[in-house]
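[job 0412] stage=fold_complex status=start
inputs:
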Amino acid sequence: MAKKDRNAKDRNARGQTLEAAAGNGLIDRRALLGRGMVFAGAMGAGVGPSSAAAGAEPLADDPWSLEFGDPTPRYQVPSKFEAKVARTLSNPNHEPRNSHSRTPHHLLEGTTTPNGLHFTINHGGVPNIDPDKHRLVIHGLVKRPLEFTFETLLRYPMISRVSFVECGGNSAPMFSPEPLQESVQALHGLASCAEWTGVKLSTLLEETGIDPRAKWFIAEGADSPHVSRSVPMKKALDDAMIAFYQNGERLMPGNGYPMRLLLPGYEGNMNVKFLRRIKLVEQPGMSMYESRTYAPILPNGKAYQFYFLQEVKSFITSPSHGLTLKGPGLYEISGIAYSGTGRIEKVMVSADGGQSWAQAALQEPVLSKAFTRFRMPWRWNGGPATLQSRAWDEAGNVQPTRAEFVAARGELVKPAPVLAFPNQHYNSITSWGVGSNGEVKHVYA
Amino acid sequence: MFTPKRAILTASLLLAMTTGVSLAETPNLGKPIDETAIAAWDISILPDGTGLPKGSGTPAQGVAIFAEKCAACHGDNGKGGGVAAALVDDRQLAPFAGISAAQKTIKNFWPYSTTIFDFIRRAMPFNEPRSLTDNEVYALTAYILSENKLIGASDTMDAQTLPKVKMPNRDNFIIRFPDHI
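[job 0412] stage=fold_complex status=done
writing structure:
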């Protein structure tokens, strides 16, 4: 790397110039596309490989290279060195109330949430359901009410699709009037993404028939609160499915074993888990969750009802709060974008608090209503930086700035506890402030 | 290669086409079940009262049931202080003083009285859901509505009267994305 160029531009290994794409060190995303630019690990040494080979320690074999390793387990789990890669629990002592577990986005990469790390919210514990005894009933405004066993449902034509699921209350701490010093896991951990396999709801409705008076269906779980939500028939005939498999294996108990409703792009709570009953009806049931919990209050005193959509959102997972940069140099900014409306069209990244923006590289394939990984090369000069991402979806929806969001949806007067849900459906920009000491804080910008 | 399996498939497709049956044939493994057999599971209540069972209850009948089965979590007389939300609360929604879901109460927010019956019957008591009789659920619903001064202290709640209880906040909702309905 030519020293004289360092303040203006970098060169990659082939000597090609890497032009600045936006202020404060963002480098054109095309630098990522296999041109051989050398990065330091995102949280690693922070500088390129040293050319000073003198003084390097001589290499020696470590003990694990000299002994017969561990036995092969029937079901493998991550290395013991990965123990910190875990969900955080809102109710670790299993008190008689609901229980949330949050995905550690800052410790993951790519777009697939491992099954053991998929977020869960359960309102009455995790039911221990015997799949051989579980039944799904479809009734109400149908021509032929039918009862299905799990075994018979497995014989139906299946589809697989990658879809994110996000709680309507995800990111709720950001309704606070000042930024809570919390990790991306605490702020945005109630969203995850998996490949789901099962049968389309419309396939089963072909067998029951649909009375034309049916405008909604009520889905209900076999858990102890019998969680129940109303869903328009429009969604039933579009992409609603009943999922049995999550990333290739049966659903995790906390994610709805043995079967759940999957409504791609819709509020997590509507994706009813432990699904046992679907009733076609003329009007919505106005269950507590739809008429109270997931009806966000607005500044004018009214409230939104039937929000359904998880709107376009993105956040940077690395660097993010709680991580520390180890010195100036090249880093890769990495994050997640998604929209309940469809595909992510583009993600813009800023390193100067939104004064200038550059387009991030999107990891292919970019799938509809699924996590999309974006990446952006960045040369940190060691000074203060404010990192932001902003996503657009294919329908033209754009993630609002915080100012735009607060103007439309309001905010709290005082900060709320991080585990509280002061409101729902927050999707504005997340900002990470990098200090000269490399510490990353949550800021509003 | 033309295997017997494919011959059968082709034959069945031809049959399907000639008899007008949908080509997207499904396994038809569902077992017909009538609404009587579903009754114990069919606990959906609609806001117009559809699904409300027979039976009735009064606020007075609800007092003792509430004290025994609800107050430990919801506080004496439902006024909070336990691990679960208050059910009787006079606070106003004050969004200009900062929006917060903590302001939502049954009285100032819940749009339909039927939701109270529906939720108690499907989910309460927390440690023993589905253990209350329908009369007990009506009595608890009446008690909560009465303590919130949404019905009179001697009003009886049943399948006819409950849906007629007009909740104060009913007309304050905006459907977020009408094109999704």
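[job 0412] summary: The first strand of chain A starts at residue 10 and ends at 11.
[job 0412] exit 0
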